[in-house]
Specification:
Family: Belongs to the nonaspanin (TM9SF) (TC 9.A.2) family.
Subcellular location: Membrane
GO biological process, one term: protein localization to membrane
Helix content: 40-55%
Bound molecules: 2-acetamido-2-deoxy-beta-D-glucopyranose
Radius of gyration: 30 Å
Largest sheet: 4 strands, antiparallel
Number of domains: 3
Strand order of the largest sheet: 4-2-8-9
Structural class: alpha+beta
InterPro entries: EMP70
Mean pLDDT: 86
Number of strands: 17
Oligomer: single chain
Protein name: Transmembrane 9 superfamily member
């Protein structure tokens, strides 16, 4: 991976927390699979076009989340002879919004060319209004040359470093005249590197595009575009003729192929990033350690007391005890020993959620591990999406097994329903929402809409691979012995005394949920900006740490809640643990809404629906994930404490 920039601070952290991941933080490497392409001088280097994506407008806010196909009829970009063709892509790449097509640009390796004309287009009123509106709200063109995104050189004022930001503007608003300027000329600057000085083995190591607006009058010759010229604006009351041109400049570069992505991967203020991460890590570790030590001490005392009481009772029977007056009655969590392992309400739903939670948990863990090991470099387009879909599908087995095992342990009887619902309920909800949002995108003629064939592929993978695997897992889960409770459950349920305020469902959920959210809050900001502002996300080292911290916090606070709950003689811990831990997803949704207010300015209805829809979807998955972490840690805890006391 590309963690070069972290190296100094990486060393600081590696010793304590990241022994495994440290080498990845300090070195950059590529895995086989993305082999370099070498070109001879004069050989054609294909330029592919990707979607037109919304970017922050001049006010630094994002005005839209809808992206468009490059060849959307309103843009009228010049097409290659015989029409544009789709370039083969991975499933993950399509799911994550790539729509790569061929283009009419001709780049000949190592040959500078100026003012080549492409085609002439006339924009009529409707099209012009559409394009002008896109320019005003900010959209960028995204091209790929030899797998590298065409970007613009940007200087980070804070650190004084330069980096390449993928994408360049379709047009801009002239601040002096308030005119909307349309870019019709592109200076394509390509950096190339000769492999060990060999003039016949040239590789592309950097792509920059400088778009310009030029109002041509008359025929375009090889020098026409080099002169200063008026800008083009698309008139919304009459037709505007626009001539598209481009120049290509090849610049030799010392950058070698293996490190060509480094310039694209820019960390905005890594110091602040590390600072806030270390900060939250320290707080979380401190909190978890406090919880564990307090809990351990309380438990030790409780267990010692319970066992002493037992001893006294035994002595009583033998008539040898002298001091029974001072000893209190049985109290606290021991009282509910006959009820803690009582089957909770809706065991089927809980088991199905837990199965899916386990599946998500393992998938996320594996994905982050893969990313950390360098398998998911941005040069491998869509690898993140592909690996996630693949892992989720294969791990259906884990989901089925977990759900069946839990259901059997809860003495559930509708095992057929459990087998069927595990692979259908949660993925079904996710797929339906996804499909509905896709309908919105279709209606907007957005390229973000996942094509029908891809949808079909997903449904096929789901039903042909994931569902059978899940059923196989369930079958094994039901064959395995139930996880026996360490204490017997009484016939008649005990009365639950009224609880104090903070242990009531809602306050306890709000209290417990905020801490796991706090652990990932900083990272979430970067993930959100990579999703919505299409920045490249590659800080998997940070992500790995945050995921670990989140799991720890989630487990620790839920266990603490369950301890207090049991002490207050409330034995309905199963759903409480799941829901309380899952509440952190509510905070994530809330965070998304705050992000909406502060960073976005979505004008259209469809944009708002999409944003809320995707936020809900992510929060729902997060709810299942954290809820399951909370439940399983509490289950382990409850089993542990009740098996360590003697019950007659
Ligand atoms: C192409 O143009 C660039 C910029 O003007 C120049 O640096 C480079 O040497 C030129 N390359 C060739 C092969 O002429």
């Amino acid at each position: 991976m590309h963690f070069r920039k972290h190296a100094p601070s990486g060393a600081l952290f590696a010793s304590s927390l990241l022994l495994v991941a440290a080498p990845q933080l300090a070195s950059a490497f590529y895995l086989p699979g993305v082999a370099p392409t070498s070109y001879k001088p004069g050989e054609l280097v294909p330029l592919y076009v990707n979607t037109i994506k919304p970017v922050a407008a001049t006010d630094a806010l994002l005005h839209s989340v809808v992206s468009y196909d490059y060849y959307h009829p309103f843009f009228q970009f010049c097409q290659p002879e015989g029409g544009p063709k789709r370039v083969g892509e991975s499933l993950g790449s399509i799911l994550f919004g790539d729509r790569i097509m061929t283009s009419p640009f001709e780049l000949k390796m190592g040959q500078n060319e100026t003012c080549k004309s492409l085609c002439e287009v006339s924009y009529h009123k409707g099209g012009a209004a559409f394009v002008n509106h896109r320019i005003k709200t900010g959209v960028s063109l995204n091209w790929l040359v030899d797998g590298l995104p065409a970007g613009q050189k940007i200087r980070d004022e804070l650190t004084g470093t330069e980096f390449y930001n993928p994408g360049f503007l379709l047009g801009q608003e002239d601040p002096a005249t308030n005119k909307i300027v349309f870019n019709n000329h592109y200076d394509i600057i390509i950096e190339y590197h000769a492999v060990s000085g060999n003039k016949d083995q040239l590789r592309v190591v950097g792509v920059l595009v400088q778009p310009e607006s030029k109002k041509y009058t008359g025929k375009v010759g090889p020098d026409t575009c080099l002169t200063q010229m008026d800008t083009v604006s698309l008139g919304e009351s009459s037709e505007t003729k626009v001539q598209f041109t481009y120049s290509v400049y090849w610049i030799p570069s010392p950058t070698v192929w293996a490190t060509r992505w480094d310039k694209y991967l820019h960390v905005f203020d890594p110091r602040i990033h590390w600072f806030s991460l270390v900060n939250s890590a320290v707080i979380v570790v401190f909190l978890v350690l406090t919880v564990i030590s307090v809990l351990l001490r309380a438990l030790k005392r409780d267990i010692a007391r319970y066992n002493r009481l037992d001893q006294i009772e035994l002595d009583d029977l033998a008539g040898t005890s002298a001091l029974e007056d001072g000893v209190q009655e049985d109290s606290g969590w021991k009282l509910v020993h006959g009820d803690v392992f009582r089957t909770p309400s809706h065991p089927l739903l809980l088991s199905v959620f837990l199965g899916n939670g386990a599946q998500l948990f393992v998938m996320t863990g594996f994905t982050i591990m893969f990313a950390l090991l360098g398998f998911l470099s941005p040069s491998n387009r869509g690898s993140l999406g592909t690996i996630m879909v693949f892992l989720y599908t294969v791990l259906g087995f884990v989901g089925g097994y977990t759900s069946a095992r839990v259901y059997k342990s809860m003495a559930g009887e509708k095992w057929k329903l459990c087998i069927i619902l595990t692979p259908l309920l949660v993925p079904g909800i996710v797929f339906s929402v996804f499909f509905l949002l896709d309908l919105f995108l279709w209606a907007k003629e957005s390229s973000g809409a996942v094509p029908f064939t891809t949808m079909l592929v997903i449904v096929l993978i789901w039903f042909v691979v994931s569902v059978p695997l899940s059923c196989a897992g369930s079958w094994l889960g039901f064959r395995a012995p139930a996880i026996e409770a360490p204490v017997r459950t009484n016939q008649i349920p005990r009365q639950i005394p009224p609880t104090t305020t903070y242990l009531k469902p809602i306050p306890s959920m709000l209290l417990v949920g905020i801490l796991p959210f706090g652990a990932i809050f900083v990272e979430l900001y970067f993930i959100m900006s990579s999703i919505w502002f299409s920045k490249i996300y590659y800080m998997f080292g940070f992500l790995f740490l945050c995921y670990g911290l989140m799991i720890m916090t989630c487990a620790a606070v839920t266990v603490l809640l369950i301890y207090f709950l049991l002490c207050s003689e409330n034995y309905n811990w199963q759903w409480r643990a799941f829901l309380a831990a899952g509440t952190s997803a509510g905070y994530i949704f809330l965070n998304a809404m705050i992000y909406w207010v502060s960073k976005l300015k979505l004008s259209g209805f469809a944009g708002s629906v999409l944003y809320i829809g995707y936020s809900l979807l992510i929060s729902f998955l997060f709810f299942i994930l954290t809820g399951s972490i909370g439940f399983f840690s509490s289950w382990w805890f409850v089993r542990k404490i009740y098996s360590s006391i003697k019950i007659d």
